[in-house]
Write a structure and sequence with these properties.
The protein is an alpha/beta fold and 119 residues long. 18% of the residues lie in helices and 34% in strands. It has one domain: Roll (Diaminopimelate Epimerase, Chain A, domain 1).
C-alpha cells in the first residue's frame, strides 16, 4: 500500500494516477494507492485506488493504515473519523496497538457461484 498525504484531495486525479502507479515497474505485484487529506486533528478524507479494482467506495484496510500513518506523522490524534465516498468510519488506535473501526456496512454485490465437476 502506498500513501500520499495531500493538501487538497480534490485536485488529485486518482483515476489517472492510480493505474499508472499500480502498474509501475517498481511494483511487480502491483500496489494499492491511497491519498488522504487531513482536515483536522480528528478528521481525514481518504480516496483509494485498489490494484485490480480501481477506485473503491471504501477500504477498511486503507482506513486502518491511514489512522496509523497520520498519527505517526503527528497529523492526527489516535482517534479520528475517516471519510470515504462510501461513508464515514470511526477509527481509533489504542495503546496496545490495536486498531478499532466502526461504521456502516452496505452490500455492494450479491451473486451465485456454480461449480461443475470434471475438467
Amino acid at each position: 500500500m502506498l500513501f500520499f498525504f495531500v493538501d487538497n484531495i480534490a485536485t488529485i486525479p486518482l483515476e489517472d494516477l492510480g493505474p499508472q502507479i499500480e502498474h509501475d515497474a517498481l511494483f511487480p505485484e502491483r500496489v494499492n494507492v491511497s491519498i488522504a487529506e487531513v482536515k483536522s486533528r480528528d478528521n481525514i478524507i481518504l480516496r483509494v485506488w485498489e490494484r485490480g479494482a480501481g477506485i473503491t467506495e471504501a477500504c477498511g484496510t486503507a482506513a486502518c493504515a491511514t489512522i496509523v500513518a497520520a498519527s505517526l506523522r503527528g497529523l492526527v490524534d489516535r482517534v479520528a473519523t475517516v471519510n470515504l465516498a462510501g461513508g464515514v468510519l470511526n477509527m481509533s488506535w489504542d495503546d496496545h496497538d490495536h486498531i478499532h473501526m466502526t461504521g456502516p456496512a452496505t452490500p455492494t454485490f450479491m451473486g451465485e457461484v456454480f461449480l461443475r465437476e470434471g475438467p
